[in-house]
Specification:
Elements: H1 2-17, E1 21-33, E2 40-44, E3 48-52, E4 57-63, E5 68-69, H2 72-82, E6 90-97, E7 107-119, E8 122-135, E9 138-148, E10 167-178
Antiparallel strand pairs: 1-2, 1-3, 1-10, 2-5, 3-4, 4-6, 6-7, 7-8, 8-9, 9-10
Amino acid sequence: MKKTILFTIAAAFSTGAFAQIYMTKSCDISFFSKTPVEDIDAVNKAAKTMLNTSTGDVQIKIVMTAFVFVKPLMQEHFNENYVESEKFPNAIFKGKINEKVDYKKDGLYKVTVTGKLSIHGVENDATIPGTLSVDGGQITLSSTFKVKFADYKVVIPSLYSGVIPPDTEVKLSAVLIPYKKD
């Protein structure tokens, strides 16, 4: 009986030994829309990313006011008129990696992450393609995908319809390191 209990405890710890939480070392999220008047381009370096290697769960929190535009007036319009950052301060993605990844083996893996993306107070199902790189205990997530404004009730004023495209290209690059409690 004692051997069975010890074996069960040992098995539980051994499966958890390789499971690890990885957190943001750095994360850049940018979006770009080409328009006839001027391009809309912004970068956010304050996003927080978490990956649980045992479950494949991924979470990303994006502070909307942390997007930096070349022109301050664009940044003001983005926060006040489009995404209403005061009312909806964060965009959140919660999902799960669909493919098997060997986190103990360095390599580059093509992955898709399926989950829920919430922007502007609207949550939608999303499947996002990307790559996951394991290199010496560090994990890098990269992705490029489109977001349609109408899907998240981001209204483009009629004055700019036909000028601003109905979607934007989003790029993500996140470097994750093992989380260590202090």
